[in-house]
Amino acid sequence: MNNFFSKLAELFSTPEYIDSLLHGFLLTMQISYFALLIGLILGTIIALIDTAKPSKWLVLPKFICRVYVGVIRGTPMALQLFIMFFVIFAIKGFPSIIIAIVAFGLNSAAYMAEVIRGGILSVDTGQTEAGQALGLSGFTIFTKIVAPQAIKNIIPALGNEIITVIKETAIVSMVGMYDLNMAAKDIGSGQNMASYIVPMFVAALFYLATIYLITFIVKQIEKSLRKSDLRVEK
Amino acid sequence: MENKNTDLKIKGLRKTFGKNKVLNGIDFELTEGERVVILGPSGSGKSTFLRCINWMEEPTAGKIIFDGEEVTEKNIERLRRNIGMVFQHFNLFSNMTVMENLVLAPVKLKLMKRKEAEKRAMELLRHIGLPSKALSYPSSLSGGQKQRVAIIRAMMLSPEVLLFDEPTSALDPESIGDVLSLIRELADHGMTIMIVTHEMSFAKEIATRVVFIDKGRIIEEGTPEEFFSNPKTERVREFLKKVL
Fold it and tell me: Which residue among A62, A130, A201, B227 sits deepest, i.e. has the most Cβ atoms within 10 Å of its Cβ?
């Protein structure tokens, strides 16, 4: 135990180690942030196509969306990352952070699409019908009635997806990227501290703290969106 | 109440869901000031008939002609703002307050300025005794309150016709009375009404015409006096024996 604390002290008193951890953490957050942004935008588009009223113009797009979601969810993330690195973007000097962002973004889009699709379908069809009966356009019905209710329903699942992506990005260390996970391994290696337990423990704390913070924020958003469900008289 | 010479004609209306033939050729005409009650056993297609009129369900075949113009996918929104609909399950927009529910359509359809719409909404809310609920969300209203708000939401557009799809079927006995008296009041003001209901005594009282549907066809129609005391068909006699 004494050893543990002395190692802990060593880690926090060595600027290079702290620097490595922070750099790793920054990369982890950068990949997660942009990947989630791509995932949200692309996932929304896929979900909208998927839940749109069938028409001859949408037969092909709907089919493509189904296949896309099926393939992405049916293959391992690590394999998708490898394919991006060693097949699609096998270009010398191409920035690996962009490849990682694209890989995680495309992956997350498939999961987000399913979450958003579920959210849209969870809104009672009576809500849409009431809008139609009042002569409102499909656009107004979606933006004013369906989307706000769907968003409220998908916030918890969306929070879950954010957390999943942040943790999943740890596999970029498999293609040699210096993220938080890799930083822990590097600091613990023979030429540095020569002990893995402390850096890995600290890296775990970084992940944990981040995810706790996100969970807290998501809970707050959920709470503020639930106000129309509360049976409170004004 | 506006006087716009309502004129609704339905010819050869058919509706199938997959292999299930729900409506098998319905011919029907509605003129202004009529109050048509649609009766029939469950599964007879009466709700589907009502829902086809404003294209909540797209008819499989047949024509709907409203004010001299055939209804198609293109002009459906114009038709809908002239034909209000009240649903069994109220369908108030649950993400909006009562006030927002009331003003959304007239403002979005540019029929009223927001201020004007809010003023009108407040008048109607006062009329049904719920002005204090203007800023409440639907989840805090009782069933009867929700349905009365749903009715005045439809009235915000001053429709020519109001369709009621079993408006009291999801309510407790006490609320039923409140909702029925609001419908009765609209009727007294000359509103053109079509209503699917199981409230026989209300049907008898309010109807100017009763239409009986079975297996997707109109089997019998007539004044409530004729229909209830002197039915022409065996099917209706059998139905009335069970429900009265």
Answer: A130
Number of domains within chain B: 2
CA distance linking residue A138 with residue A132, whole number of Å: 8
Residue among A131, A134, A231 whose CB faces B139 most closely: A231
List the domain range (segments joined by +) for residue B61. 7-92+159-243
pLDDT band for position B131 (50/70/90)? very high
Residues of B in contact with A132 (CB under 8 A): 56, 80
CB contact under 8 Å between B92 and A230, yes or no, is no
Same domain assignment for residues B205 and B233: yes
Enumerate the residues of chain A whose CB falls inside 8 A of the CB of residue B89.
Answer: 126
- List the single range of A16-25, A41-50, A129-138, B76-85 with lowest mean pLDDT: B76-85
Question: Are B88 and B117 members of one domain?
Answer: no
Residue B101 contacts residue B92 (beta carbons within 8 Å): yes
User: Could you tell me which of A147, A114, A146, A97 has the C-alpha nearest to residue A40?
Assistant: A114
SS (H, E, C) chain A: CHHHHHHHHHHHHCHHHHHHHHHHHHHHHHHHHHHHHHHHHHHHHHHHHHHCCCCHHHHHHHHHHHHHHHHHHHCCHHHHHHHHHHHHCCCCCCCHHHHHHHHHHHHHHHHHHHHHHHHHHCCCHHHHHHHHHCCCCHHHHHHHHHHHHHHHHHHHHHHHHHHHHHHHHHHHHHHCCCCHHHHHHHHHCCCCCCCCHHHHHHHHHHHHHHHHHHHHHHHHHHHHHHHHHCCCCC
Residues B62 and B124 in one domain: no
Q: What is the mean pLDDT of residues B67-93?
A: 90
Residue span of the structural domain in which A126 resides? 11-228
Average pLDDT over residues A63-90: 96
Q: How far is A137 from chain B (nearest CA, A)?
A: 7
Residue A69 has pLDDT above 70, yes or no: yes
Give the CATH number, domain containing residue B181: 3.40.50.300
Whether the pLDDT of residue B29 is over 60: the answer is yes
| Distance in angstroms (rounded) separating the CA atoms of residues B122 and A230 | 23
Question: What's the pLDDT band for A160 if we cut at 50, 70, 90?
Answer: very high
Residues, chain B: 244
- Single pTM value for the model: 0.84
Strands B20-31 and B7-17: antiparallel
Asked if A228 and B139 come within 8 Å (Cβ–Cβ), the reply is: yes
Helix (H, G, I), strand (E, B) or coil at B120: helix
Quote the minimal CA–CA distance from A118 to chain B in Å.
18
Is 90 exceeded by the pLDDT of residue A190?
A: no
- Cβ of A228 within 8 Å of Cβ of B92? The answer is no
Distance CA A160, CA A137 (A): 33
**A97 lies in some domain:** yes
